[in-house]
Amino acid sequence: MECPHLSSSVCIAPDSAKFPNGSPSSWCCSVCRSNKSPWVCLTCSSVHCGSYRCDDFVVNDTKLGLVQKVREHLQNLENSAYTADRHRKRKLLENSSLNSKLLKVNGSTAAICATGLRNLGNTCFMNAILQSLSNIEQFCCYFKELPAVELRNGKTAGRRTYHTRSQGDTSVSLVEEFRKTLCALWQGSQTAFSPESLFYVIWKIMPNFRGYQQQDAHEFMRYLLDHLHLELQGGFNGVSRSAVLQENSTLSASSKCCVNGASTVVTAIFGGILQNEVNCLICGTESRKFDPFLDLSLDIPSQFRSKRSKNQENGPVCSLRDCLRSFTDLEELDETELYMCHKCKKKQKSTKKFWIQKLPKVLCLHLKRFHWTAYLRNKVDTYVEFPLRGLDMKCYLLEPENSDPENCLYDLAAVVVHHGSGVGSGHYTAYATHEGRWFHFNDSTVTLTDEETVGKAKAYILFYVEHQARAGSEKL
Coiled coil located at which positions (predicted)? Predict the structure, then answer.
């Protein structure tokens, strides 16, 4: 929201202000009364925020765009001859960073080609998901091969643009910024990439993620995939991106699974189908429904929730198979979930069971580590053992006898881990495999790691890809 004095003054954040209107903790937005991410006008002390409930976010600029003009002037200076010394220092820094990023492979020296992502302020949830998706080869390659979309023309073409409200920028493309980010991650740069342009677009089209509070990585992943799917369906600037899937994609027609309309690369890669079977316990009426999915959310069985480490001796270790079995086992619905039986014509007690009718190319498994209690959201910190290769999904299929055993095997590609005690705090990192080597992605830091370390991680989201033997034999 704009301050009435914005044409002659500037709004600043509390960490840089001298608190003209009391302690920052006492500030709240004059529009929505939120005390998150407050901004204060130095002229009239009006307070506004970056909350999505205000339908906009405060930008550090004037109505005449004076701050933007200063920024453009500084940008021109940066491109002048005065930057020569800066480039020289940066080159020396890159050389020293390169020396620290060398590793031994078969007796010879090689450089780590992976690039980290800068943390823009509690954006580790986004960085962990982006790094994981960048290592889903088929998914990543599709976006990197898309033609670029030029969002700017005229005077701003080819130049870095600082986003301010005075520009009135509504022509944003999530697909394009996602494509640029993926292209930057495996170019061998020794300097961390800043995903600020992508984050700006996310702020514009996903208001739940505005601001700099910690967010749930799984929730972000679902929003990201859903919005990519929708934009690919509709195209951007009149150019249909889904045409690229139809003409150039190596994905077979049988691999496509529609979610909310036509198929895209999102549903072709992550899309599977569940059969939801409900039986009335009074009359025996059976109801079946097929539901498309992009990921499966699995409960950690209650009997394992006190086991926090693999080496703890009190009882067996919880495995991913235990979580999958709990998800697909026959379950009697409680009193709050009574089934409306069309034969009995009233709500009755019933049982429910899930079967997997179609497996996806990439199986994304979300372990439900956060649970609401009466007053807060607690974390289930149980260690869950998971296979790095050969995850067999045949026994969870609706018709396992009609499936080739080789077609039900999956290998681990990436793991997202939450460190800390609560969903609104803590830190996210990711492990992913690339060309046979495992990497640990911790925002701007990327380090080589091993399978043993990955196997000890307390996984939050697991990405499994089709077993290599299957992928190699199948012409996609």
Answer: none
